[in-house]
User: Fold these one by one.
Assistant:
Number 1:
Amino acid sequence: MNFKEIMERYVNHTATEQEIKMVEEELLRYQVLTDYYAETEDYKLQFDEPQLKSNKVEMKKIRRAVKRNNIILVGMSLILVLTMYFAYNNMIKPYLTKEVLYNPDIHTYSEFTSDLTMVLATLTELHFPNKITNDIVIKNTGLDSYDLTIYQHDKMKGFEYQYGTIEHGSIELLRGFYEFPVINSFIYSTYPFYVGQGYDKGETLNKLKVLPDYTKVQANISFDRDITMDELIELEVKNPNIYLSWVGIRNGERNKQILPLIGMDPTGSGYIYEELNSIYPYYELALYEDRHTAKAYDSHFKALLQFQLDHIDTLNRLNDANYNKQGYYQAVYDYVQENGVTSYGIVITGKPQDVINLCDEDYICNLSVEDIEWSIY
C-alpha cells in the first residue's frame, strides 16, 4: 500500500491509528520544509537577476555621484585655498604692512631709494666718521620679517657689506655697523677732556716726517678751541691737498658730556638724494655751487638734524646705543641754532708732509694717527 492510498483514508477518516500517526508526521515534515523553502525563496526573490542588474546600475550612479561630489569638494577647497592665498598676499598682507606693521621699504622721497636707506645714510654721516652708507637691499622673508644687506664705503679701505634683520618692527644691525667715535678721539670733543693723557703733537709729527711720500695718513685733528665754519673754510683753502672727511660739531655746552659725538661730511660724497634738497635745503651739498662756504656747512648740518628729527620712529627701532634720540637731536638742533655751528676737531686724510703742514695752525693742539696706507697718487 502506497502513501497516496493511506492519505485518502486519512482524509476519509477511515485510516488506522498507525496510518494517522504516519501521515501527521509527514505533514509536520512538509510544514518545516515549506517554511524553510518560503524563507529561502523570499531571500532569492530579493536578489533575482533583474533586481541585481538594477542594483548594480544604482550603485554605479551612487559611485559617480560620490566621485563627482568629491571632485567638486576638492575643487572648491582648492579655490578657497587659492582665494585665501591671493587675498593674503594682495590685500591682507599689504594692508598690514602699510597700515599696521612696520614697512622698511617705503619710498617717500625717491623711486629708487627707501626711506630707511636715507635714515641710515644720515645716521652714518652724523656719527661714523670713516664710513658712508650707500644703499640697502631689503628682502621680505615673511610677515613682519626682513633681511637687510647694507652697502657701505670705508673711506680708507673701500667698499664693504653690513647685515641686519627686521623682526616685528625691531631693526637689528650687526655691531660692525655702529662705529661711533670714542670720546677720546679728540681732546676737547666732550667733557671730561683728555689733556696730557699720552698725546704729544711734536712726537707724532716727528714720526710722520720719516714716512715715505707714497703713503697716506688718516688722522684725528684736535682744536684747543671751537672754530667757526668760516675758519674751517679758511683751513681748507690753505691746505688743498688735505681730504677733509668729517667735521666734529659741538653738540652742547663745552663743560658737559653729551653723547654720542656728532659731526658731518663736508665733501658731499656718497649717493646723491637730490629729492631731499627741496624739503631740507643743503642736505646734499654736492648740488650747490656755494657748497664750500660757511653758510652751506651750517645749513647742511641743520638739514641732517632736521631729517633725523622727522624720522625718529625709524631711529627708535634701531638696536644701537640706548639714548633718547628725540631729545638728543632736538637739543643739538636748539644748541646750534642759538650758538652757531662750531667744530672741536676734524678727520683728515693726506700725505705725511701735507698733514705736517696742516698742523702749523696755532689752534691745532694735537693729532691722533688712525691709519697709514700705501698710496698710488
Note: The chain has three domains: 3-46, 115-177, 201-374.
Number 2:
Amino acid sequence: MPFSFFRYPVRMTTTNTPHLSRITRLLLTFSILLWGMVGGGCIFADYQNPDFEVMSARVTQETDEGYVVTFILKGHNSNAFAIPLHTVDYALALDSKQVYSGQRITEATLPRKGSQTVRLPVPIKRGESATADAMLAAESTDADLNYRLAATFVFEVPGSIAEILFDNDIRKPTHSFASTGTLEIEPPRAAADN
C-alpha cells in the first residue's frame, strides 16, 4: 500500500468540480469585498446624508371616498456627487392619530451640491380624521389641523462595491426625518365662493 497522510487514500473525481467552482467564486467575492473595505478607500464613497424639509402641505384632491394631502419636500445634497433616491417609507398622523402609512418609489435624484423637490401624496379615507372631514365639509373653517410626517428615504451612493451591495440588498443607505406642523385646510366650497 502506498504511503498516504490520510488513513484512507483520497480519490480525485471530476464530480466535485462544480462544488469547487462555487467555493472559488465565493472566496473571490469575499476577497474583493474585503479588499474594497480595507484597501480600496475610493470604492466606498464618503458621503453626508441628504437633508429634507417640508415646504408645503395642502389638500390637492377630494372625492366622496377621501382626499389627498400632498407634501412638497425639498431635499438638500451637500455631497460632490448626485444621490439617486429610490424609495421612501412614510407615515402621516393628523391630530395624533395615524391616518396613513405606505411606501413609494421616489424617482428623483438630488443633484450634487444642490436641491430637488419631492412630492409625497398621502391618500386619506373619509372617517380617518373627523377634524379634517369637518373642515373639508366647510363645517369648521377656522380650526387648524396638526400633522406629523415621518419618512425614511433609501438612496444610493457611488462606488462599484457600494453598487453591488445595494443591488443585492446587503447595504442600502437610509435617512429618516420627521416634521410636525399645522395643516391649514381651506374648504374647496368656500374657496370657490371667494
Note: Confidence is low (pLDDT under 50) at residues 12-17, 38-43, 189-194.
Number 3:
Amino acid sequence: MKSGGVFVSFVGVIIGFIFGRSLGFIFGIIPGLILGIILGVGIIFGIDPVNSTSLANVIKASSGVSGNVSGQTQPKDVATYPSVILSHGAVEITNSDGLPPSLSPGTRLRGTLEVKTGKAGSLRIQIDSERSLFIEPNTLIRIPGITWESGELAEIQLIEGRIRLRGTKPGRFTIRVTSLLFDQPWPVGDVLYEMDQEHSAASVYVLEGHVKFSALNAETTVEIGAGKKVTFQGQLEDGEIAYDVLLQGRKVPRGLLSAVTEIAANELKLWDLTEELNKKKRMSAVIIKRKKDLEQLGPGQICRKPKAKYNECAWVCLDNRPGETKGCAIQTDTGRTSQISHASRIRKSLKSARCVRLRCLAQGEWGDSKVLASDEGLLRCQAEPVVSVCDY
C-alpha cells in the first residue's frame, strides 16, 4: 500500500464532510465518498496519485495496463544513432534536402541518404547499439528514410559495390538489405554483401554467423555458415537484368544460384587486414574529435562551425564563387549578384551559390536546414557564416 492512496482517500472523506454540512447527505457526503473510492484505487494498485500525471494512470492501472499514459517508451539511443563512426578517402553523401551532412565522427544521420564512395573511400555507420554498417570503396547505397524522432530505418539499398554488416544480436527494429537481385533481413554476425550490376551478379560472404540466402522472390534457398560464400549469377537482356514476372507483379531474376563454397584464405586475410587498419583509423578519428571538443566556446554556446547558442540561426553560403571574400554570389533571375562583391556579374552558365539557414539544436548540432530564395539569400548571406537570432 502506498501513502498516496491513503492520502487521496482521506481527502475524499474531508471533501464529503465539508459538502455534507452545507449541502446535506445526498448532495454532499455521497459525492465525497464516491470521489474517495475512485481516487483511493491507489490503495489497491499501489498508485501514487500525487506523482501521477493524470487520472488516466489510475484507470490504466485498474485495467492491468502498465507503462506511461501514451503507451510509448523512447529508446535510450534515440539521440545518438544512426551516426558516423569513421569516414576515409573520397566519400559523397547527400540527404533528402540536397545538403551534404558532416562526416565527422558522431554526426547523426537523418532523412533519405545516398552514399557513394570512391576508389579509396569508405564510410562506417553505427546503426544502433547492436549493429554497424561498413561501406567499402567503389560502392553506391541508398537509405530511403531514417526517421527524425527515433532514428529508425527499414531498408538499405545496395545499388553497386560491397557493404559489410555486423550485428551482435537483432536490433530494436527490422532492417532489410536489398538490391536488384536479393532482399535479405539484416543478419546476426559479420556478413559482406556484393552487387555487380554490369555482370548481373550478387554474392554473400559470411565471415561470422549463419545466413539463409535466396535470389529476389525465389523459392530456392541455401544456408551459408561462417567462412562460406555463395553467388547468384543473373542473366542480362539488352544490357539489363532479366526477370520473370509472377502473379501480383512479383519479379524473380533469371539465373543460377551457385553451390556454397569456402572463402579463399587470401580474401579472409585481406578483410582481417582491412579491419585492423579501420581500428587504427577509428582511434585517430577519436583523438581528432577529442581535440575538436576542447575548442573554446563562448558563454552559452553549444554549436560549432560556426559557434552559436541554442536556437540561434546561422546563414551559410554554399558553393560560393572561388576567391569571393565579401558577399555570397547568388544568381537571381535577372543575373544580378550581391552588391557587396566588386567582381563582375556571374555568367548564367556558372553554378550559383546558395544561402542556407540552419538552427542550433539542443544536442549541439546544426539542423532544420532551409535553402532560401535568391532575393532573400542575397540579403542574409555573406561569404562567411552569419549567426544571429532566428527569424522564425
Note: Helices lie at 3-39, 41-45, 55-62, 265-293, 374-380.
